[in-house]
Amino acid sequence: MSNRLGAIEFRHLRYFTAVAEARSFRAAAQQLHVSQPPLTRQVQQLEELLGVVLLERQPRGVELTAAGAVFLDEARNLLALAEQALDRTQMAAQGQLGRLDVGVFGSAVFDAIPRVIQAFRTAYPKVEVVLHNLDRAGQIKALRERRLTVGFNRFFVEEPDLVWDVVLAEALNVALPAGHRLTDHARLTIADLSGEAMVVYPRSPRPGFIDQVLGLFHRRHLTAQVVQEVDDVVTAVALVSSGFGLTIVSDSALNLRLPGVVYRPLERNEALIDLCMIRRIDDDSPLLRAFIEVAREVLPPPPEAHAAAR
Amino acid sequence: MSNRLGAIEFRHLRYFTAVAEARSFRAAAQQLHVSQPPLTRQVQQLEELLGVVLLERQPRGVELTAAGAVFLDEARNLLALAEQALDRTQMAAQGQLGRLDVGVFGSAVFDAIPRVIQAFRTAYPKVEVVLHNLDRAGQIKALRERRLTVGFNRFFVEEPDLVWDVVLAEALNVALPAGHRLTDHARLTIADLSGEAMVVYPRSPRPGFIDQVLGLFHRRHLTAQVVQEVDDVVTAVALVSSGFGLTIVSDSALNLRLPGVVYRPLERNEALIDLCMIRRIDDDSPLLRAFIEVAREVLPPPPEAHAAAR
DNA sequence: CCGGACGATACCGATGCGGTATCGCAGCCG
DNA sequence: CGGCTGCGATACCGCATCGGTATCGTCCGG
Question: Tens digit of pLDDT for each residue in B72-85?
Answer without folding.
Answer: 999 999 999 999 99
